[in-house]
Amino acid sequence: MGFRSPSVAVVMHRPESSHALVYFDNNATTALDPAVVEAMLPFLTEHYGNPSSAYSFGSRVGKAVEHAREQVAALLGCEAREVIFTSCGTEGNNTALASALAADPDRRHVVTTTVEHSAVKNHCERLARQGYEITWLPVDARGRLDLAQVADAIRDDTAVVSVMWANNETGVLYPIKEIAALARARGAFFHTDAVQAVGKIPLNLRELPHVHFLTLAGHKLHAPKGVGALYVNRRVKFAPYLIGGSQEHNRRGGTENVASIVALGQAAELAAAAMEDENTRVRALRDQFERGILEAIAGVEINGDPVERLPNTTNLFFPGLESEALLVLLDKAGLCASAGSACTSGSVHPSHVLTAMGHSATRARGSLRFSFSRFNTAAEINRGLEIVVHAVEKLRALMPSTMALVS
Ligand SMILES: Cc1ncc(COP(=O)(O)O)c(C=O)c1O
Questions:
Q1: What is the DSSP secondary structure assignment for residue 173, as one 8-state letter?
Q2: Separation of 25 CA from ligand 1 center, angstroms?
Q3: Given this chain, do its domains 35-269 and 275-406 carry the same CATH topology?
Q4: Is 195 in the pocket of ligand 1 (CB under 6 A)?
Q5: Of the residues 132, 177, 288, 316, which has the maximum number of CB atoms within 10 A of its CB?
């Protein structure tokens, strides 16, 4: 694009994995890829024009936004005109649901699952308070949906079916193609929150004609926080959520977050190139970590389907332990992991995902999520294993009664 500034010093190696930090919380957010930083910096410095301005100082910036749209479309397997840039995954989810509901006021029924992220869950709870009827699909003990139950739930007055592509806590994957076809058979829209799937597993919207809306968030694929995208199938009559100027081809008002959009485009291109690494090396690191924990600590169990899940995620139950206490010790040793989703951590509520799977509040409170990325190394896995095993031993020594629960 010719926008690179030689005056901006950019560090071109992978993000520093200082020995002090072992970052195993990539489903919460990811480190920026240095190439992403390099691509966005000129738009925070000399290329600050407004993309809507008529003069070339602005329109050149507009061209960079359109280039990013093409990069995101290439990752998703859709057309550039089907991509709307947003501020985050939450906005994409809210926008998709609102647009689907606006299309036909007589359809006041929504189908979703009991394991959605709060960006869909809380939105649907608000819809229920506004008089919409919501069907919450249950999952089994491994976090899986029953397709027959999905089919039964969709009705002639269903406006939209919203099912996440991959669960943020367990990594469990859902049969999006089949569910989208079931929605289509009843004339309902289909939306998928693919925030955790995009960039981690191959997906191709060209093969998914019945997916009408798909949400992604930049910060889960090594782009900055505060930028995302919503795919809207070109055949859908779209109702904008943010009303204002004519930005995003009249589909989202508000001056574009250009630097972050450029960053997201670059991140999308890098994600496509790194997809194989994600599914081989990162998967192997996850498996090595998981095996190491299962072998070293008695009683640990995997939460969620161990096969149909993201290659980078493991959610583990540590019997007799409180995950909050374990997290404190891990934090002290420089290891970042998560109990429940990041958005609900800090609260004492057990994870709604694990309880929806039929697990007790005790099991939910004794479970931790570890999520990896292409920037993790085998050395970090070994260090991480040492830290976790040591922390668990320490906690069990403090609470000897818990030993009885395990052996
Ligand atoms: C599955 C899922 N959906 C939506 C979101 C919300 O994304 P954002 O924080 O960009 O709004 C997240 C973030 O954790 C997520 O994991």
A1: B
A2: 13
A3: no
A4: yes
A5: 316
Q: Residue 406 C-alpha to ligand 1 middle, in angstroms?
A: 34
Say yes or no: CB of residue 154 within 6 Å of ligand 1: no
- Third-level CATH fold of 35-269: Aspartate Aminotransferase; domain 2 (3.40.640)
Q: Is the CB of 117 under 6 A from ligand 1?
A: yes
pLDDT band at 226 (very low <50, low <70, confident <90, very high): very high
110 sits in which H/E element:
strand 109-113
Burial of 17: CB neighbours in 10 Å, binned 0-12, 13-18, 19+: middle
For ligand 1, say whether the CB of 224 is within 6 Å of any of its atoms: no
**More reliable by pLDDT, 9 or 262:** 262
So which residues are the catalytic ones? Answer: 343
Q: Which atom of ligand 1 is nearest to the CA of 88?
A: 10
Query: CB within 8 A of 205, min separation 6: which ones?
Result: 76, 77, 78, 82, 211, 214, 231, 233
Distances (CA, A) of 394 to 12, 325, 386: 40, 11, 12
| Dist CA 92 CA 89 (whole Å) | 5
* pTM to 2 decimal places: 0.93
Asked if residues 36 and 263 have their Cβ atoms less than 8 Å apart, the reply is: yes
Please answer whether residues 278 and 311 qualify as being in contact, where contact means their C-beta atoms are separated by less than 8 angstroms: yes
Residues 6+ apart with CB under 8 A from 122: none
- Per-residue pLDDT tens over the stretch 157-190: 999 999 999 999 999 999 999 999 999 999 999 9
- Residue 19 confidence class, pLDDT cut points 50, 70, 90: low
Domain boundary assignment for the chain: 35-269, 275-406
CATH topology of domain 275-406: Aspartate Aminotransferase, domain 1 (3.90.1150)
Q: Is the Cα dihedral 344, 227, 191, 141 positive or negative?
A: negative
Q: Residue 248, by phi and psi: left (phi above 0), alpha (psi -120 to 50) or beta?
A: left
